[in-house]
Amino acid sequence: MPDCELEELAVVEQALTHEESSAASARGSLCLLDRPCTETEMLEYLLEVECSRESLARSASELARATREAEVASRQKSDFLAMMSHEIRTPLNGILGMTSILLDSPLGAAERDCVETIRSSGEALLGIIEDVLDFSKIEAGRLELECVEFDLHKAITDALQIMQPAAGRKSIRLLTRLQDRKSVV
C-alpha cells in the first residue's frame, strides 16, 4: 500500500462501526479484482486509486509547466539565432564588398584567384547564415519557399575550389565530371 495516506485509512477504519464491518464482510463486497474482499481491502484499494490519481494530476501539472518552459526557451533560441545571424551578416557583407572592390582592380592571376576564393567562401558563409535564419523561420512557422535558378556547374566548381586547399594538405584530389556545363537548375 502506498504510504501517502496511511493516516486517512486509519481514520476511515475507525469511523466504521463493528456492525458495519461485520455486515460488509458477511456480504462479501466485490473487489475490482473479481474476488470477494473485505471492507478494509476495499478501502486500501480506493486509497491506492486516490493516491495514483493525485500522482497523475501532479505529473500532468509538471508536464504542462515543462511544456510552457520549453516553448519559451525555443522562442528565445530562435530570437537569439535571428539576432546573431543579423549581427554576423553585417561585417560579412563588408568583407564581400571589399572583395568586389579588389576584383575590380588590376590583380595578377594568383591574387585574383585568391580574392575570388575569399568572395565565394564569404558567399557560402552568407548562405549558411541565411539557412540559420530560415531555420528560425521554420520554428516560428514563417518560412516561405521560393524557386530560384542557379548554375549547378558553378556551384559545384565553387565548392571544390573552397575545399581544394584542405584536401591538398591531406593529399586528396577533388574531381568532378559534369555532362552539361551549362546546366541551370
Structural account:
This protein has helices at about 5-15, 20-25, 40-105, 110-140, 150-170. By secondary structure, it is mainly α. The chain folds into two domains: about 5-145, Signal transduction histidine kinase, dimerisation/phosphotransfer (DHp) domain (Helix Hairpins), CATH 1.10.287.130; about 145-185, no CATH class. The protein is elongated and about 100 Å long.
Task: Describe the secondary-structure layout.
Layout: H1 6-15, H2 18-27, H3 39-104, H4 109-140, H5 152-169
Helix pairs in contact: 1-3, 3-4
Number of self-contained structural domains? 2
Assess the beta-strand content as a share of residues: under 5%
Class by SSE composition? mainly alpha
CATH secondary-structure class of the largest domain = Mainly Alpha
Strand tally, please? 0
Oligomer: single chain
The arrangement of helices and strands along the chain is: HHHHH
Number of helices: 5
The N- to C-terminal Cα distance equals 69 Å
Instruction: Report the CATH architecture of the largest domain.
Output: Orthogonal Bundle
Low-confidence stretches: 14-31
Q: What is the name of the CATH superfamily of the largest domain? A: Signal transduction histidine kinase, dimerisation/phosphotransfer (DHp) domain
Helix % is: over 70%
Mean pLDDT, to the nearest integer, reads 78
**Any idea of the CATH topology of the largest domain?**
Helix Hairpins
Radius of gyration: 36 Å
What's the story with the biggest beta sheet?
A: none
Global geometry? elongated
